[in-house]
Specification:
The protein is mainly alpha-helical. It has a single domain, classed as Four Helix Bundle (Hemerythrin (Met), subunit A). It is built from 6 helices and no strands. Helix 3 runs antiparallel to helix 5. The two termini are about 15 Å apart.
């Protein structure tokens, strides 16, 4: 989990006061793609904790795939010039219409989401190379990362007045 930004409270206050929004197409991609991938990782980790069993390699491979897809979405949301012609229609729409995140939102987005996705990717990747099982203590760390991302997106949703909620 990333440490809070020094100016985080001021950024959220500015977002609320200036009524800064996330374009509906950007939010839709965040909600459908990023949210779905993170929620999938969250469900796999939560099931492991609930059953008190380490995550087996087939589920670990799914988690790694979801984390990598989520990372690609983050890159494309924050750097639309990286969107390719064969990407999803909403991503192409973002690129072609030059839809971007407001600089304050991008600062928050860049700070929080990539850090947690990198932790998930490194943790899962390490165990896939080493033992093919993810032990419960690392599953708890992964679960913490997914909850951090979901919490951040929910906090952003509230600050910007978006309607869709991403559930953990």
């Amino acid at each position: 989990m990333a440490n809070p930004l020094n100016n985080e409270q001021q950024i959220y206050r500015r977002i609320k006061e200036e009524k800064i929004e996330v374009d509906p197409t950007l939010w839709d991609v965040m909600y459908h793609y990023l949210g779905d991938y993170v929620s999938s990782i969250n469900l796999l980790a939560a099931d492991s904790i609930e059953t008190n069993q380490p995550i087996p390699s087939e589920d670990a491979k799914k988690m790694l795939d979801y984390a990598m897809k989520a990372s690609r979405i983050v890159t494309k949301l924050t750097r639309p010039q990286k969107i390719q012609d064969d990407d999803e229609a909403n991503l192409i729409k973002i690129r072609d219409k030059k839809i971007t995140l407001h600089r304050d939102i991008q600062e928050l987005f860049d700070h929080y989401i990539p850090n947690d996705l990198n932790i998930i990717t490194m943790c899962v990747g390490y165990h896939l190379e080493d033992s093919n099982l993810i032990p419960l203590n690392d599953v708890q760390n992964i679960l913490s990362c997914t909850k951090n991302i979901i919490h951040f997106l929910d906090k952003l949703r509230i600050a910007t007045g978006q309607q869709r909620v991403i559930h953990d």
